[in-house]
């Protein structure tokens, strides 16, 4: 009944379940998880769920009389074709030594289906179930090039436009990037937003999490909505090559570099009395490598009112994401997995594959509840953690 009444919210999860055995028992994609000493973190397909999803999809496809209209009855085949095309796209080989390659025309044509909205489009649930595929936006054309992001699996970036000119940017992942847990995390963050929306104090402060759509197609392929107007915190602080950024722009005389600090800390860890050497080296690095996150707001917002609003948004979003991440045991929170929403100053967390305290099982266990490093605190202003951050937590 859910598939018939709400096809755009139900068919993609059903296809992901049906494809649960595609690619074998895939290990979780994050590089951090591959460092886990125990081999108990592999995801195994539940064959009963795979069979049930396949049977349900077959029934929906064979019985058009169950649907409200012939157009909606065709959705099972149309969505299945889009899923198959995305899986094929995710498996396209990456051309060596290039940041982009042509998007095959045959694949682009298969992804232009009039009855299927762009996968990253978040449709509100309609209590009347009156979804009309012919009135919804759909991908009318695709960019002719596929771009590649950095990372072990080189995820692909593709763009499409609907008939009205609205652009939809997608990150298509493959290989060891199993997005099923990311999808669950985004559902949890949506629940957090729903709970905050019913709290008077949270509403008064505008507390919420920036969410984005994650659609897994099978254990080794999936799609992530591109979060527009964002940049990685690591890129702002250190530059894309980790030898620039704000830490270089605002460097003081005698300040050490990020790369030098990392190498020094790594060397200290090899000494006989590693714990004492690491602590002494860390204290020395802190003195020679001061935080600079406060400059992000001075650079981006020139008027005092806009600056104060952006920093307040940052502090409140740090509070919400920290507590929500702690509640769900979210790990792997390095600065590359935290985005800055440039129009507002809010933080956005991505790559949510290390959760439910899995970080404690890494070779170097993650023991902190959330990321609250010196640069994170520096962005909170002179009050640090004792001001709005503590009140919002």
Taking the sheet with the most strands, its summary is:
7 strands, antiparallel
- Number of structural units classed as domains: 2
Query: Helical percent range?
Result: 40-55%
Shape descriptor: globular
Mean pLDDT score: 91
First-to-last CA distance: 40 Å
Low-pLDDT runs of 5+ residues are: 24-41
CA gyration radius, whole angstroms: 23 Å
SS class: alpha+beta
Number of helices: 16
- Total strands: the figure is 10
Strand content: 5-15%
What is the N-to-C succession of helices and strands? HHHHHEHEEEEHHEEEHHHHHHEEHH
What is shown here, in short?
InterPro entries: ATM_plant, Kinase-like_dom_sf, PI3/4_kinase_cat_dom, PI3/4_kinase_cat_sf, PI3/4_kinase_CS. With 393 residues, the protein is of the alpha+beta class.
Structure report:
It holds the Pfam family PI3_PI4_kinase. Keywords: Kinase, Transferase. InterPro entries: ATM_plant, Kinase-like_dom_sf, PI3/4_kinase_cat_dom, PI3/4_kinase_cat_sf, PI3/4_kinase_CS. GO terms for molecular function: protein serine/threonine kinase activity. This protein is α+β, with helices and mostly antiparallel strands and 393 residues long. It has two domains: 224 residues, no CATH class; 110 residues, Phosphatidylinositol 3-kinase Catalytic Subunit, Chain A, Domain 5 (Orthogonal Bundle), CATH 1.10.1070.11. It contains 16 helices and ten strands. The strands form two sheets. Strands 1, 2, 3, 4, 5, 6 and 7 form a seven-stranded antiparallel beta sheet that branches. Strands 8-9-10 form a three-stranded antiparallel beta sheet. The radius of gyration is 23 Å and the shape is globular. The protein starts with a helix and ends with a helix. About 5% of the residues have low confidence.
């Amino acid at each position: 009944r859910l598939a018939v009444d709400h096809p755009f919210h139900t068919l993609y999860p059903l296809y992901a379940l049906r494809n649960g055995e595609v690619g074998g028992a895939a290990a979780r994609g994050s590089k951090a998880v591959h460092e886990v000493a125990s081999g108990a973190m592999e995801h195994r397909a539940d064959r009963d769920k795979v069979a049930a999803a396949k049977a349900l999809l077959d029934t929906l496809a064979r019985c058009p009389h169950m649907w409200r209209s012939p157009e909606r009855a065709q959705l099972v085949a149309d969505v299945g074709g889009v899923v198959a095309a995305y899986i094929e796209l995710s498996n396209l080989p990456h051309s060596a030594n290039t940041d982009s390659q042509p998007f095959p025309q045959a694949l682009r044509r298969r992804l232009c289906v009039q009855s299927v909205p762009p996968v990253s489009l978040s449709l509100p649930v309609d209590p009347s179930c009156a979804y009309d595929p012919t009135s919804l936006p759909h991908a009318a054309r695709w960019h002719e090039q596929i771009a590649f992001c950095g990372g072990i699996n080189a995820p692909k970036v593709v763009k499409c436009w609907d008939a009205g000119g609205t652009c939809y940017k997608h990150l298509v992942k493959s290989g060891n990037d199993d997005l099923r847990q990311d999808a669950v995390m985004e559902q949890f963050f949506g629940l957090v937003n729903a709970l905050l929306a019913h709290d008077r104090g949270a509403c008064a402060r505008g507390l919420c999490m920036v969410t984005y759509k994650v659609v897994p197609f099978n254990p080794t392929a999936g799609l992530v909505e591109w979060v527009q107007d964002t940049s990685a915190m690591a890129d702002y602080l250190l530059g894309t090559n980790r030898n620039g950024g704000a830490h270089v722009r605002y460097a003081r005389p005698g300040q050490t570099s990020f790369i030098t600090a990392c190498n020094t800390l790594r060397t200290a860890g090899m000494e006989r009395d590693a714990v004492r050497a690491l602590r002494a080296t860390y204290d020395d690095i802190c003195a020679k490598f001061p935080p600079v996150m406060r400059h992000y707001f001075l650079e981006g917002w020139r008027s005092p009112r806009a600056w104060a609003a952006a920093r307040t948004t940052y502090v409140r979003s740090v509070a919400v994401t920290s507590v929500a991440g702690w509640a769900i045991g979210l790990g792997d929170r390095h600065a590359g997995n935290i985005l800055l929403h440039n129009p507002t100053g809010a933080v956005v967390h991505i790559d949510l594959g290390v959760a439910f305290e899995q970080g404690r099982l890494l070779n170097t266990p993650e023991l902190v509840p959330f990321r609250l490093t010196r640069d994170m605190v520096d962005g909170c202003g002179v009050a640090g953690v004792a001001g709005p951050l503590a009140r919002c937590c």
